[in-house]
Design brief:
Blueprint lengths: L6 H6 L7 E4 L3 E5 L7 E7 L6 H7 L2 H17 L2 H4 L1 E4 L15 E5 L8
Antiparallel strand pairs: 1-2, 2-3, 3-5, 4-5
The chain binds guanosine-5'-monophosphate.
The site of guanosine-5'-monophosphate (5GP) has 13 residues, from strand 2.
Length: about 120
């Protein structure tokens, strides 16, 4: 069950600040507090979904489409489509998912072979 006390839920409710990249009524993008690359953005829908599978199962096709197209827009805004980038989403225990609100890591801005 979704725990609305997770740190990203608090950031979405503006109880905790973030270094915001983009926000609208459906999605929020902000910089990771502990960046693993020069560009490390976290992308998330604002709906109460725990993980990738939870997001896909509980969202409409329009919501899924909107979220992933917004990732592409942000990727292009940072010119990562030209230099290359990596998307990661950790789902569940074996993936060591830290925060139980679905999010996608956008990593780039440098070669990622030596990912910090
Ligand atoms: P996960 O392991 O859940 O995929 O990744 C969680 C990510 O959230 C980590 O990369 C971690 O650095 C980041 N993070 C955790 N707490 C905060 C926070 O309070 N603010 C920001 N901006 N990032 C956070």
């Amino acid at each position: 069950m979704y725990d609305n006390n997770n740190i990203f839920a608090k950031i979405i409710r503006k109880e905790i600040p973030c270094d915001k990249i983009f926000e609208d009524d459906q999605v929020l993008f902000f910089n990771d507090i502990n960046p693993k690359a020069k560009i490390h953005i976290l992308a998330m829908p604002k709906t109460e979904v725990i993980s990738f599978s939870d997001f896909i199962n509980k969202s409409t096709p329009e919501e899924v489409d909107y979220f992933f197209k917004k990732i592409v827009e942000i990727v292009q805004k940072f010119n990562l489509d030209k230099t290359g980038y990596r998307l990661i989403t950790n789902d569940g225990n074996d993936a060591n998912q830290e925060v139980a609100h679905f999010h996608v890591h956008i990593l780039g801005g440098e070669n990622l072979s030596g990912l910090r």
